[in-house]
Design goal:
Length: 272
Amino acid sequence: MNISPEWRARADRMFEAIQKWSDMMKVDPPTAIAGSELATDDKMFLPMPTSVVTWAGVLHAVEHLDAFVKFFTTSQIAYPTAYYSLLRSALIGGASALWVIGPDDPLLRQRRALTIAVDDLRHQRKSGKPAREFAEDATIDRQMELIDKRLAEAIEAAERAGMENAAKADRWQLQTTDIIEAAAGYLPKESAIKMSAAALLLWHTQSQIAHSAPSARLQSVNRDSYYRAADGTLVGRSVLDLDTLLLALSAAVLYVNQAITLFRQRAGVNAS
């Protein structure tokens, strides 16, 4: 790949941060100090507390960012679209974590953590039916009973939190696009407005790639590479746009960095 010194310098700064986070994920996660904001949030739903929901998003994001760095730096192959699958997952994890931990209002944090917990339990329950096809004993049935119990407890917690339509929580629909847009509001002010639009654009583009949309491949074709094949077919060559890749990386890194910063702040843990 033909990488400019300027591009490499900007990327290396993010690579260093990602390595630091990756090392952080290899030790026990920070625990909310008693009496801290996050410790209070956790009491709303102990089976899947706010701190766990938030840190799970951070961990998911960092794992994919670390995989991206290792894949990109060791392969040195300019895959036109494959890198975005990793960055898309990183963006989801970082945005979800920031969406939960970002608000100053504790009730809003607790409600958002509950929303993700309910969505998680719903997806676990959906996996039960196909999983039964492979089970040779009652293990899956016992797991489904526990999931139903946890879902009922989450609905009770949602009612205590005064959430709208709490009784129908098992039918809530979590919209990732809305989460990414709302989470941008908790980024540093100098980044929030610009990154909100950029992150949404990247999210939609990366979703097209993840779903193998023909337009995603066409958008990666170098306009100067088109030619007519012998049979008259118009053919073009896909290329990796390094500037767009750097922007996608920056978006995920910004969300993760702010999520970790606010997590530590609300947990009463000093930054290291």
